[in-house]
């Protein structure tokens, strides 16, 4: 499929979606959102894709929604734009394959928001995070007030959104927004290595884990545990369970099906 504002490539079961408007620091325009949603559909339909990486070209991950585009929006258009972005971020969250946010640089506003819709965030030491919308006289609209507080607590979410300040990758790790920080020159090769390793696991288990953590999070524990037992049982109808357990007992590495 042809894309103009993103790059999408698949190698060894890992799809890499790179937002590619480096001159505008990869700002999210309606076209970018549209192409990201098409690429997510492409990854969902492609059985050879096990894991997805989301990253940005050049010095930024994503410096936010496109301010030039937003500057002339009416309230109605702004609501539509917010809903469109939220929908695309939901697609990342609901994709039945792990999505790693590989944050190489600025992740501001909509950039921070799209990283939080991924399953976890790995960052280069050069990354910077923030919700600077307040500096533009507006507020977050792609989930910043919601996912951020769920990830790091209400107090940090409020500080970041109310001050509009930026934090470093290390600070983002300290507050629990980022899982790991890597040296800049090894960043993408490390992310790729770990993504490939994850892609070698069984598909049924990867899907079950992602779905259960997300679906169970907002439910009462008892209900969520009962859903977990169902999902666990589903694994036992798969070849992956047979292969994984036989391989352990036979003291060899499992070879999960790749299709
Ligand atoms: C459009 C952007 C942009 C953005 C940067 N650019 N961020 N264009 N939308 N969000 C453009 C600049 O205008 C400039 O274009 C080029 O990218 C390089 O940016 P510079 O500012 O020259 O780079 P630098 O001095 O390194 O500063 C980097 C920066 C700064 C600190 C990241 O660009 C910045 O503050 N950007 C805005 C960040 C922000 O406010 N994000 C939140 C947006 S609101 P030219 O043509 O001059 O070279 C949002 C809402 C989401 O995300 C929810 C919507 C519903």
From TrEMBL:
tRNA-binding is among the record's keywords: no
Organism: Dethiosulfatarculus sandiegensis
Molecular functions per Gene Ontology: hydro-lyase activity
Entries under PANTHER family matching the protein: ENOYL-COA HYDRATASE, MITOCHONDRIAL, ENOYL-COA HYDRATASE-RELATED
Keywords: Lyase
SUPFAM superfamilies to which the protein is assigned, alphabetical: ClpP/crotonase (SSF52096)
InterPro entries registered for this protein in UniProt: ClpP/crotonase-like_dom_sf, Enoyl-CoA_hyd/isom_CS, Enoyl-CoA_hydra/iso, Enoyl-CoA_hydra_C
Listed CDD domains: crotonase-like
Similarity comment: family membership: Belongs to the enoyl-CoA hydratase/isomerase family.
Protein name per Swiss-Prot or TrEMBL: Crotonase
GO terms, biological process: fatty acid beta-oxidation
